[in-house]
Design goal:
Length: 351
């Protein structure tokens, strides 16, 4: 009878709590009662290097339901993605919402404040390459570990936001990573089609080991949660059209997940990209582009010229494949190994 009396005692305890406390949702220090919005921090403790506090917002809908995580600013100078989440923090109304949304507008605070692209200047690591993280690692790894445990493990769906960094002229696109699990893939495909970006990269051949997932969205995907990546914005700009793509896209995906009222609209005939081709610099120089973001090129087309510091042409990178310029180096600076352009090869078949 021990079991029975324990259950009765627990039920008594629960009924003694106020209704809201039973269904409040807490991430880090942000704790929102049902129908409330709360702000707080994911507190990354100091370790082999400094600690940091990552801002987090919980919007807990008046009607309980699924949990969606929106994470931005792993690259702290991809400004459009950060500003879009700031807009959503203001816009999401818990009274209209079914379920819970966790918003992280800026993972990489040091990158944002110091205007350092691509990496966390504290440990020089990309904050979207070290998932699922390590509790005893450097700041990037400790932050990733906390995000995995506090956000990925507790959400049902996840969207990771990126864009063109300070040196990247990027056209908007999304990533969809099919897993072979039909129901999960059906939901993630609906999420990406409802988001509405018109170029979608089919991201296959990703790490499947849960202890070495590298990317945030892949960390959620491998743990069975439908997830997508979206990118908009370029080269330090914050254009309203780009911000709106990410804000409206998020609301569209939320409608498709039935977290917001209204019928979702799914983009028709998006351009599916089946392969990416990076063009890398094989030495330092000055970059003069001949193509823009979004330009369609055929294999062999000259993408631009590279000169030395005396103006002598030292390279003329050409398109290794036919496809669309997803992003092209936005600044004259080039060093060995830099990404000059990223080309997307249009898929032969619609997935
Ligand atoms: Zn990024």
């Amino acid at each position: 009878m021990f079991y029975k009396s324990t259950v009765a005692f627990a039920a008594l305890l629960l009924s003694a709590l106020p209704a809201n406390a039973q269904q409040s949702f807490t991430v880090g220090t942000a704790s929102a009662a049902l129908g409330q919005k709360a702000t707080g921090y994911l507190e990354v403790p100091a370790g082999v290097d400094a600690g940091t506090n990552i801002p987090v917002v919980v919007v807990n809908g008046a009607k309980p339901g699924k949990v969606l995580a929106l994470v931005s600013g792993a690259h702290g100078t991809e400004y459009v993605s950060i500003i879009a989440i700031e807009k959503l923090i203001a816009k999401l109304d818990p009274g209209q919402l079914t379920g819970t949304v966790i918003l992280v507008p800026l993972v990489n605070i040091a990158s944002f404040e110091q205007k350092v692209p691509h990496v966390n200047p504290i440990d020089n690591k990309s904050m979207n390459r070290f998932y699922p993280g390590k509790a005893d690692g450097t700041q990037t790894e400790r932050a990733s570990d906390l995000i995995t445990k506090q956000i990925v493990d507790r959400c049902d769906y996840l969207i990771d936001y990126h864009g063109g960094d300070l040196d990247e002229s990027l056209r908007p696109y999304a990533y969809w990573g099919p897993t072979g699990h039909s129901e999960q893939d059906r939901v993630s495909k609906e999420m990406v089609l409802a988001f509405g970006l018109d170029h979608i990269i089919i991201w296959s051949e990703r790490p499947t080991d849960p202890n070495a997932t590298r990317y945030l969205d892949n960390t959620a995907t491998v743990r069975g949660k439908p997830s997508i990546v979206v990118e908009a914005g370029h080269a330090g700009t914050v254009e309203t059209d780009d911000v709106n793509l990410l804000v409206d896209g998020t609301l569209g995906t939320m409608r498709s997940l039935k977290m917001l009222p209204g019928e979702p609209r799914f983009i028709e005939n998006p351009v599916w990209i089946e392969k990416l081709s990076d063009v890398l610099a094989d030495g330092p120089g000055i970059w003069y582009p001949l193509v823009k973001r979004g330009t369609y090129v055929s294999a062999g087309m000259k993408l631009g010229t590279i000169t030395d510091y005396f103006g002598k042409v030292i390279a003329e990178p050409r398109a290794p494949v036919s496809g669309v310029v997803l992003h092209v180096n936005a600044v004259p600076s080039l060093k060995k190994g830099d990404n000059i352009a990223d080309l997307g090869v249009v898929a032969a078949h619609t997935p």
